[in-house]
Description:
Order of helices and strands: EEHHHEEHEEEE
Amino acid sequence: MTQTQSGARSRTFEWTDPAVHADLAGERSGLELLQAMSRGELPAPPVMRLIDMGGMEVSEGSVTVHLDPQEFHYNPLGTVHGGVLSTMLDTAAACSVHSTLPAGVGYTSLDLTVKFLRPATLDSGRLTTTGTVLQRGRRTALAEARMTDAQGRLVAHATSTCMILEPPTRR
């Protein structure tokens, strides 16, 4: 982040072609794809670069993502914007579902219900968001995500329903 003479701040970031992940989704399971990203073998998806997520840990049915709050995450009230927190919760919950899917099977979020429990600021320290699959069927999955601050206090909680997208049947 840089600051101009007028006090305005600027930020530059880069991302890789999102087709990289889409092309591999037919060849690798969700777990394999996410683990490769967590090890740095595949680039982070653009949204992770956009909000500056700080890495992820992946196991089957659970994904943890991190965020170090920055000024560019702030809303006009001086706290991390709820949309940024919701993005973290959605990422953790939905990716936990993705970690259970075989190659060629996709998903999309149907809903996300978020409860904000305390404000997040620079003083919160690293935010850790862990998503866990609660139930997975053939067509939908239910997941939750819990976000804690550096002191282990619950900042936000979400539940999400994901629709599982089977590959088209060839005739």
